[in-house]
Request: fold
Amino acid sequence: MPEPASKDLAETVHRLVSPCGRMAIEYRWSKDRFVHRVLVGDQVCLSSVDGDGMQDWPASPPIQQISLEPIEDVLMILGVGGAGRGHWSISVGWQTDGDGNVDRESGEFRFDIACRVKETPEFLGSTYAIHPKADGVVEVTAVLGTEEQKDSQISIAAADDNASETHRWVYSLRNRP
Reply:
């Protein structure tokens, strides 16, 4: 996807703040996709590790369209994108309790991501760089899929489902007390 025609689009920030106000997710346009970062207060704790447009299977979803949408009175980030022979979709919102109500105390975000593929992927998941002064500030928990931390990066890989053309991973991010 080419650079945005409008400088305004390139400078647009899609920001979702936790109900308790402690954490925020920010998406910004960079080259051919939206990249994001996780903040606690004004400190950047995690930054997505993204591809360069040449990779069929980038380290994080190549989201090229994004919007903030109210769904049942809860603000969500919704996005889609593609690379190689894969098509990604993402939703980011606040964690809910067992009754579907927003957990306003936890400040926890939930990412639900899927990728439809036409061939066996090299890697499907989300990868973050952990900022040096922020190690341990944000807890990453795989709900569906697996998480792995190596050095200053953490990855959440899609659930292993070789029988399906659609692969999915779900994880939560929360500020450690």
Remarks:
- The longest strand covers residues 74-83.
- The two ends are 40 Å apart (CA to CA).
